[in-house]
Amino acid sequence: MTVGQVAGLIAAIAFLILVVFIGVFLTKMVRTLTEVNKSVQTMTDDLDVISKQTEDILANANTLLDDVNHKVATIDPVFKAAGDLGTSVSDLNSATRNLTGKVKKTAKKTATTGIVTGLAESLMNLYRGRKNKS
What residues form the membrane-spanning segments (predicted)? Predict the structure, then answer.
């Protein structure tokens, strides 16, 4: 064998080794991509299930929210009436205070007038009593 043939043989062997390594690499890569594809498919299926469950939960939440809004709208007049009643009671308390104040003033005036009148009557009786004795 000549030197050129030996060099060609070495080059052919090196090329063969390179092709075998590339083949092994590509085979492992195909296996990896297959596993990735299976994982992605599993995740997609899981996401579909989660998406469906989320839609169901949101639909139930919307129904519940509508129900709560309806009930709150039904209760609103009760709170309005309670507020109006509170205002009325407050107004009644104010009116009662004012009336009580007026009654107190009148009672004081009456009491003062009554005391003065009573004192005057007592003095008159006393004076008449002395006048009758003389």
Answer: 6-26
